[in-house]
Amino acid sequence: MTALVCRAQMGPEDAEPRQWDAPSSSSSWQPLGGAPSSSSSGQPAGFGAGARSGEWDDEPLLFSPDLDTPPVLVQDWRAFRARLLGCEERWAASACSPGYVLTAYTPPHCVQLGREERWAHVLTQPERGCLLVARPREGLGMFKNTVILLLEHEDSEGSSGLVINMATPLLVSQLGLEEDIADSFRQCPLFIGGPVTKNLLHVLHGRRDVEGALEIIEGVFAGGVESAAELVRRREADPREFMLLAGYSGWGPWQLQRELRAGTWLPVAASQAVIMDVLKESLSWSPEPQAVPRMGIGAALPSNSPFSSSAGTSGMSCDELKLQCWQRVLYRAGIEPHMLGML
Fold it and tell me: What are the Low complexity biased-composition ranges (predicted)?
């Protein structure tokens, strides 16, 4: 494996001198220029006297599999992968069309709005934080037209997730919950996360300040119902920032893989902005038509999008809302519903 060259810089944590052990003789470490060399102190070149006094030589530090400190990719790797896929699409288009001119990166299914990126693309395998989009087929029952956010996934151990587009005509205040939680989310609709343990309440949101929440992907969190309720009580958060769901969806070891091979689900990677769009659109729905104003979701879509209408979700049935959110995710991934059978 080729080592990655990275110039190290001291940070506040390196203020005190640190002892650095020279790599073993079997290490693949070598200085720039190719040939290994050594110093009079028995250390490889690049680890001079300054390294032991807390200072670096001018020579870059080479990270290799034999060293304990790998380089860290700060950027969201999912967004990086989406950009790579977008570049591949553009190069493929240029190869097929001699008159095609390469321009700045803008994949067909990626729309940039300010600092937010809205992108989605199909995956060959599911992963934590991806969306499972139900394919149109017979026998799905309650999972027809569903979109599931996958919270955990390991083939040998099982998977779990929450349906994010299955509303119910019930309000949270009708569930007989603890008074503090019921008061905070009194007028919020209840959603179904899945058929497993429906007596448990889950919450999805985009708030980093909710205690006890687990970050699924960057900017999307699950859990922390009590903390969320406290933020609402203190008027530090709006109750419509939280999706409350009863139950979850679960798969045993290798069960999800079997369902994928059977053509039940389409795994889709989506940006935080796309996932939050679906959550906000679902949360803008109310069991009582016109009771809750829209949250401006249509404004986040191109003018030629089939979902940019100002009609909103008012007056929709639960099934109509489910269908619209399902279509939104497919649209973001550049997929027409009739194409699902070909993927």
Answer: 33-44
